[in-house]
Amino acid sequence: ALVKQNSKVSLIEYENYFSQLKYNPNASKSDIAFFYAPNKVLCTTITAKYGALLKEILSQNKVGMHLAHSVDVRIEVAPKIQVNAQSNINYKAT
C-alpha cells in the first residue's frame, strides 16, 4: 500500500511488479524488510530496477511496528508448495 500511494511509482509499475510481492513478517527484522516474489525474473527485476526506491519508501514509512527508519530490502523467490501428484479419485470404468 505504501508503494501504491507513492508518486514515484506509476499504476502500471505497481500492478506489474510491486503488487506481486508478498511481505514476510516472520523473516523481517528491525532494519530488514523481506518480501517474496513469485519467480526469479521478477525477483531480479524488482531488486535491480526498484530496490533503491523500495528502500527509500520503506525507510520513510514504517511497515509494521518493528521496522526502523533505515530499512534494507531483501526479495527472494517464494518457496514452492509441494503438491501430491497422485490422484485421490478412485474411478472404475465399467
TrEMBL record:
InterPro entries membership: DnaA_N_sf
Superkingdom, natural source: Bacteria
Protein name: Chromosomal replication initiator protein DnaA
Species: Helicobacter pylori (Campylobacter pylori)
